[in-house]
Every structure is written in structure tokens, then in C-alpha cells.
Amino acid sequence: MKRTQLYLNESIWKALHVRARQSHTSISELVRDAIREKYGRSPASRQQAMMAVVGIRKDREDLPDSTTYIRQLRKGKRSRRLAS
């Protein structure tokens, strides 16, 4: 197990503190459980979730063409700023 440090705002810390007392566990364990639930899934279930996202934009007419959108984002002064 690796050790890490998190900064939590007061309201989140209070909510975790209350939940930890109610469930007779630590805040650390609650955080680990939440991370496992959100990110600790098997590779197969992650792939299934990712495949569910494929193509969700294809029929949207209110969104610009992705190539045009990216080109617009890339227009700017960044290349000139980096060159100087």
C-alpha cells in the first residue's frame, strides 16, 4: 500500500467524519472504498464503459464538427509565444 495526502474542504471532511463514526471505520477506509468503487473496476468493465461512450456525439447537430472545433482551439498566439 502507498501513502498519499489529500486536501479536503471543510464540508467534505465533516461529511466523511460523520460517516466514519456511523460506520465505525476510518475516513481513510471510506476514501479507499470510494476510489475502488469509482476507479478500481476490472479492465473488462472499464473497456465496456469506454465502449458505451463511443459515438455518443455522432448524431448531435448542435455541436460543431470535431476537426473544425479542434482547429479553432489551436488558433491563437501559443506557437508565436513559444517561438519567442
Describe the structure.
The model has no long low-confidence stretch (mean pLDDT 85). This protein is extended. Helix 1 packs across helix 2 (27-39). The chain is built from five helices and no strands. It starts with 9 loop residues before the first helix and ends with a helix. It has helices at 10-23, 27-39, 43-53, 66-74, 78-83. With 84 residues, the protein is mainly alpha-helical. The protein has one domain (10-83).
Secondary structure layout plus pairing:
Layout: H1 10-23, H2 27-39, H3 43-53, H4 66-74, H5 78-83
Q: Outline, from the CA principal axes?
A: extended
Order of helices and strands: HHHHH
What's the helix count?
Answer: 5
Q: Largest beta sheet, briefly?
A: none
Number of strands: 0
Number of domains: 1
Q: Catalogue the unreliable spans.
A: none
Query: What Rg, in angstroms, do the CA atoms define?
Result: 22 Å
